[in-house]
Amino acid sequence: MKEVKVKGLDIKVPDGSPFTYDTPDPLPKAHQNCLIVAPRGQGKTTFAVNLIEKMPYDRIICVSPSMKSNAGLLSRLNIAEEDIFEDADDITVVDKIKAIIEQERDDLEEYKDKKKKYAELIKMLNKADDIFSIPDDLLVMFYENGSFEPPTHRWKGKKPCIAVMFDDCLGSQIFTKGIRKLNALTIYHRHLGQLKEGGSLGASLYFLVQSFRCSSGGISKAIRGNTTSLAVGRTKSNIELEQIAEECGGEISKDMFMDIHKKATEDSKFDFLFLDFNKKEQHPSMFRKNLDTFLVP
C-alpha cells in the first residue's frame, strides 16, 4: 500500500502516564477500575482485600450491605466508619463519594496555600524590626499555644491515593436507578478531584459481583468497557465464561482465555484468573493465577 506523508500533522503523545501513583513492582498500576467476578462463597472479598491492602491506598471507601458479615476481613483495610456505606439502595452514595474526594482535594489545596503563607510569615518575622508591621490575619492564622505553628495536613502534603469498593451491590438501586451516576464515576474515576495546578486525585474502583452480566442491575457496558483489570473465579457457567472471553476479545482469543482460566482455577474453588489489561512493562505476562503467579502463554 502506498503512503503519502503530510507534514505537521503527526500525532504527538503527551508526556507522563495516566496512572499517576507509584505502586510496588509486582502490583498493578494505579488508578484502576478492577472487576472481580465469582459465584457466591468463592472468595471475591478475600481476593479484593488481599489486593487492596497491598496497594498504596491512603483512604478506602466501602459500599457494601454485607459489611457487618465481612467485618473481620474488611477490618484489615482500616476503613474509617465515615467511609462505610451499607445502604446500596441509596443512589446519593455516588454523590457522597465524589464529595469525599473533592473535600480531600480542597484540604490539599488549602494546605498548600497555607504552607506558602507560613513561609512568608517566617520570612517577615526574621526580617521585621516590629512584629506589628506584619499583617494581623497572617499572625492570627498560625499563632497557637504561645508560638507560631506550621500548617498540617492529614497526608503530610501528598496527594492521597483513594480506593472505592462496591461489594454485594448487584441488583441494588445504585446499579439500577443510579446507574448513570455510577457509569460517570467509572468513566471519570481518574479525573475526580481536579487540582488547580493540573492533574487530579482520582480514585481506583473495585466492583465485586457474582455475575458478569445480568438482565437488570448488573455491571453495565460502560463499567465493563473501562475495566483495567479483571479477576475471574471458578464458575460452572460456560456461557458466562464465553461472555467474559468475548469482552476480552481485543486482548486474548476465546480459546486461550478458556485454557488460561482453567489453568488458573483448577486447584481450588477460591483461585482466580487475574488479567491486567495495562500491565507494567517489566511484568512477564498480563495473566496471573491469583496475585503471586504469572501465567505466560
Give structural notes.
By secondary structure, the chain is an alpha/beta fold. The protein is 31% helix and 15% strand. The chain is built from 8 helices and 11 strands. The strands form 2 sheets. It has a 9-stranded mixed β-sheet, with helices on both faces. A two-stranded antiparallel sheet has the order 4-5. Helix 7 (238-247) crosses helix 8. The longest helix has 35 residues, at 93-127. The protein is globular. The mean pLDDT is 90.
Report a brief summary of the structure:
The protein has helices spanning 44-52, 71-74, 93-127, 136-142, 179-187, 221-225, 238-247, 254-265, and strands at 33-37, 59-63, 84-85, 143-144, 147-148, 162-167, 204-209, 229-233, 272-276, 287-289, 293-295.
Distance between the termini: 33 Å
Uncertain runs are: none
Net shape: globular
What Rg is obtained from the alpha carbons, in whole angstroms?
A: 24 Å
β-strand number:
11
Largest sheet: 9 strands, mixed
Compressed to H and E, one letter per element, the order equals: EHEHEHHEEEHEHEHHEEE
* Number of H/I helices: 8
